[in-house]
Structures are given as C-alpha cells and as structure tokens.
Amino acid sequence: MSDKPKFEVIDRRKIKADEEQENQQSSAPQPEAVPAPPEPGGGPRLVVNEPKPEVPAEAQGELPTAPTAQESREQKAAYDASAQRLEDLVRAQNPAAGAQPPITFEHLVQQFYVSAMIQMGAGAPEGQPPRVDILGARNTIDLLGVLAQKTRGNLTEVEENTLQTVLFEVRMAFLELTNMISLQAMQPPPQGMS
Hints:
mainly alpha, two-stranded parallel sheet, 2 strands, extended
C-alpha cells in the first residue's frame, strides 16, 4: 500500500473554455435548427438548441429593477408563512424534534467552511479516494475572505472570532493540499515494468 494520498483533481478550465467557445459560436448567425423526430423506444435523442432572441443594445448591461419596499414586505411575509407551514409539517411527523433554531451569521460561516472542506476532499466515504475540486475550494475560501472584508467592524466579537478561525483553518488546509499536489506533480511518473 502506498503512503501517497490518492485524490482526483477537477479542472474547470476546460468547462469554461467550452462555454466561451459556445458563446462565440452563438454570436455568429446560425441557420434555423430543425428539431429531430423523437426516436422510438425512449432512447437518447438529439437535443437542438434554438437560437436565443436578440437583446436590444439599450437593455444590455442594465440591472433589473429592484422590488419596491411593499413587494419586499409581501414576499417576506409569504416566505415566512411558507417556512412556518414546512416547520409545522416536520413537527407533525416528528413531535420530539422541536422548533428549529433561527439561522445566524455563524450558520453562514459554517456553511462556507463545510463546502470548502468537502471541495478539498474531506468527508469522502471510507475506502473511496477523495474527490478534490481545488478551484472550487479556492473560490469558496475567497468568498469567506470577501465576507470578512465586507463585514469588518459590523460583527460581534464571537462572530469575528468564528469567521477568522474558519478562514485560518480553510486556508491552512488549502495550503497543505496544494503543497501535496505540487509535490506529486514534481515526482517523475512511475516506470512501467518490462
């Protein structure tokens, strides 16, 4: 058994390049697509993308109008009522569960922490190699950094400590993982047996 960790690195650059190529192709005039007739037997079918409608030049770059204060209040009230109905259904199925605690800033930070750690391969089922999304992990860690920057001076001491501790831990895990990846990349490939 090798002491080298085994993991899978997911490279999103290829996906982004494919999207950019599709965007360039979609800007060129294309002939009208004719839908393929459905194949009998329910097997795979050819999916034809229809051309997207042209967006007027004056509408490009404009942000959608924000909801009014009244619309926001009505939407919030409808959301709260829907969430309460869901809470009631859950408690009816499991009376011992009790009410869910309110969502706090710490929950948000914990959500980012868990996401980053899973993206770095933590929590893989035993016996399976961890799946690593190093670029996704970097984005999640950067989002935590943006959160820390934008909330500076507006957090309680406990919230600030939680955020800084999580940032430190995920950045250290990221450094360890990228160092392992760098070391593996520098090792020569194994020689095949003759």
